[in-house]
Design brief:
By secondary structure, the protein is an alpha+beta fold. α1 packs across α2. A hairpin with a 3-residue loop joins β6 and β7. It starts with 7 loop residues before the first strand and ends in a 13-residue tail after the last strand. The strands form four sheets. The chain has a three-stranded antiparallel β-sheet.
Length: about 170
């Protein structure tokens, strides 16, 4: 049976946080801690050319964000094009399956005619790690403490503190 939790609303900022608590890596047991995906170089370039419109001869990471995620991807060819790391992840997911590029936290190399994506994690990289949250809960953290661990500049306030919504809403 489901336990009814106090209704709450979360507001304020999203900032990347560490997956380490008191020296313990919260994602150590995760099956997504590290991963690798290999794809034929020509096959990937053909797919990217079709997906983004162009004739590309190479793909590389051109910019990373502060958490080291691939923020900008350079598609080089007759005309160069830059796409976001997330746009690349979505294009790959649509063509090859959503388990290939699990996140934008990856390195990209070429080895023997293949592009090799070596990465960590699962998802977009902003927000709560389900694996880490589970480990914190096992350590005795409450739901509110887990939210505050992942969103440290957040204020949790009761939903009842907000004005009544417009008529016909779902609250």
């Amino acid at each position: 049976p489901l336990r009814r939790q106090r209704q709450m609303c979360i507001r304020d900022s999203l900032v990347p946080v560490s997956e380490v608590y008191r020296g313990r890596d919260l994602s150590a047991g995760s099956p997504h801690r590290s991963w690798e995906w290999r794809v034929d170089q020509d096959e990937l370039l053909d797919m990217l050319s079709a997906s983004f419109g162009g004739a590309y001869r190479s793909v590389s990471i051109s910019e990373r964000d502060p958490s080291n995620r691939a923020m900008r991807i350079l598609l080089s060819g007759d005309e160069n094009r830059t796409v976001s790391g997330e746009e690349l992840r979505i294009a790959v997911g649509r063509e090859y399956g959503w388990g290939c590029l699990k996140s934008t936290l990856f390195d990209l190399t070429i080895n023997g005619g293949e592009y090799v994506f070596s990465g960590k994690g699962l998802g977009h990289g902003v927000g709560l790690s389900q694996w880490g949250a589970m480990e914190l809960a096992r350590s005795g953290f409450t739901a509110e403490e887990i939210v505050l661990f992942y969103f440290p500049n957040t204020e949790i306030i009761p939903l009842s503190d907000f004005p009544d919504p417009a008529p016909g809403s779902n609250r």
